[in-house]
């Protein structure tokens, strides 16, 4: 099965409601190439309004996090059902900002991911090593642990039920991108771990996105790598001028 490239914008805690609607409109107004998929992840209060803008387009809407329970005493959390009601079909889980600033553990990430899957929301599992881990030579160990723990007890019928995003922490918001070769090495390794967790056929269907200072100047080179199936974009996704060229990356 061919993996359809996914160009995803993570707007993090940016944009007012009006800015979110304008940005979504600016992206939706452009014809998108048919051979790729686009996803936008606005802040939770903007989900519903952005969903209205994206109605009748092929652009997917994602939440930036998701709880595992449908309802209950979980102050500050948003349930998968609430996200679906707001129009989201995908949800980011385990972003390094959640792990580092909000101390989310692999166990918690696994609960979120499982909750999303059970509700029919496609999780985007973020993993990635810190600079210290890279310099210590433990990048692959970190990635393998985050994958195995994040995906514990998960069964997939098809690989397109899950997206993985490799986001080296040292490349996020720093302007430092992993080289295409570094990205391919990590993505290839992740796919081999996924083949071990699930099976080879499912691993071949799972899209693995690269994230970390992706911009219009480096996207073509990254996307040319065999196991790079898309990009999870922060800063450059906040302006149509920089996100549209990323969506329109050139295939080799
Ligand atoms: P930047 O593209 O700003 O480095 O952010 C990447 C990211 O964290 C996407 O989730």
List keywords for this structure.
40% helix; TIM Barrel; alpha/beta; 252 residues; eight-stranded parallel beta barrel; 15% strand; globular
General description of the model:
The protein has 252 residues and is an alpha/beta fold. The protein has a single domain, classed as Aldolase class I (TIM Barrel, Alpha-Beta Barrel). Helix content is 40%, strand content 15%. It has helices at 17-28, 47-54, 80-86, 96-101, 106-118, 131-135, 139-150, 180-197, 200-205, 219-223, 240-247; strands at 6-10, 37-41, 60-63, 90-93, 122-127, 163-166, 207-211, 230-233. Strands 1-2-3-4-5-6-7-8 form an eight-stranded parallel barrel, surrounded by five helices. α1 (17-28) runs parallel beside α2. The mean pLDDT is 97. The structure holds 1,3-dihydroxyacetonephosphate. The site of 1,3-dihydroxyacetonephosphate has 14 residues, from β8.
Topology:
Elements: E1 6-10, H1 17-28, E2 37-41, H2 47-54, E3 60-63, H3 80-86, E4 90-93, H4 96-101, H5 106-118, E5 122-127, H6 131-135, H7 139-150, E6 163-166, H8 180-197, H9 200-205, E7 207-211, H10 219-223, E8 230-233, H11 240-247
Parallel strand pairs: 1-2, 1-8, 2-3, 3-4, 4-5, 5-6, 6-7, 7-8
Helix pairs in contact: 1-2, 7-8
The protein binds 1,3-dihydroxyacetonephosphate (13P).
1,3-dihydroxyacetonephosphate (13P) is lined by residues 10, 95, 167, 172-173, 211-214, 232-236.
